[in-house]
Design brief:
Layout: H1 4-9, H2 14-31, E1 35-40, E2 46-53, E3 59-68, H3 73-90, E4 94-95, H4 102-126, H5 144-149, H6 155-168, H7 177-194, H8 198-211, H9 220-231, E5 239-242, E6 248-251
Parallel strand pairs: 1-3
Antiparallel strand pairs: 2-3, 4-5, 5-6
Helix pairs in contact: 2-3, 3-4, 4-6, 6-7, 6-8, 8-9
Bound molecules: zinc ion (ZN).
Length: 253
């Protein structure tokens, strides 16, 4: 069986190989070849940062990429590799595992994912890839009526929608911005009907994103805590991070 590096680089076009190779090397040195690449015919690619337990306190990182063979395969692979690379950059392997509520936990995972996009988009572009293929096209309509009827559209839901739409607008090509503005307007109308004062929260979230303070690796956890405060939920108190041997440990920064 060919090794994981050869396998990964097999998807990278010749003119980008040299640049992407250094990313692949860093990712492999972190996961120690404990990386799995699996193909899917679905248009959606995704990654998992899992762990393999060494003893009660420690684990080694384990990365897995499920890669679409049908939609932007090369770009998606680099995108997911950048997610796997992120813990080396900012030290946060997993966040939010101390959150008991499932809904809040899922939200913290989505938040971390979107934050990472904002951090690594410039690396992706520097490799020479186009912003047109940074994200998989998302054609599903935001069905707010159903969410309102079922009662899940509380103030946290709207704040997170604002966060998701505002930050994603930074990650799409120029010709898609009008479409995302439209989504934002629809969302605002629904949110304001239920929570007329929520615009105060929206502006705090907007300022949080625009400051880009979360791009600085040493202030990311502090920034995430302040974002969760804006959301009005109990901020995570522990993170899974790595030591100099790339072993994962739980810390309470
Ligand atoms: Zn992503």
């Amino acid at each position: 069986m060919e090794n994981i590096k050869t396998q990964i680089l097999g998807y990278i076009s010749l003119e980008k190989k040299q640049a992407v190779e250094s990313l692949v090397d860093k990712v492999i040195s972190f996961y120690k070849e404990n990386i799995e690449l699996e193909l899917t015919e679905s248009s959606i690619s995704y990654f998992e940062r899992a762990k393999e337990r060494v003893n009660a306190e420690q684990a080694t990182p384990k990365g897995k990429i499920t890669l679409s063979s049908t939609m932007n395969t090369e770009e998606a692979l680099v995108h997911e590799l950048l997610h796997l690379y992120m813990p080396i950059h900012h030290g946060i392997y997993t966040l939010g595992f101390d959150i008991k509520d499932k809904g809040t936990y899922d939200l913290s995972a989505i938040t971390q994912n979107l934050i990472e996009h904002d951090i690594f988009l410039k690396d992706y572009l520097n490799f020479g890839y186009s912003i047109d293929r940074f994200l998989t096209p998302d054609n599903k309509r935001d069905d707010y009526e159903t969410k309102i009827r079922s009662g899940i559209a509380n103030d946290l839901f709207w704040m997170h929608e604002y966060f998701r739409i505002f930050i994603t607008k930074r990650h799409v090509p120029k010709h898609k911005i009008a479409e995302w503005d439209k989504r934002m307007n629809i969302m605002r109308v629904h949110a304001l009907k239920m929570y007329p004062n929520i615009t105060d929260k929206f502006s705090l979230i907007r300022n949080w994103i625009k400051s880009e303070d979360f791009h600085k690796s040493d202030s990311l956890f502090k920034e995430i805590k302040s974002l969760f405060k804006i959301f009005g939920i109990y901020p995570p108190t522990q993170i899974l991070t790595h030591d100099k041997n790339y072993l994962l440990n739980i810390v309470r920064p």
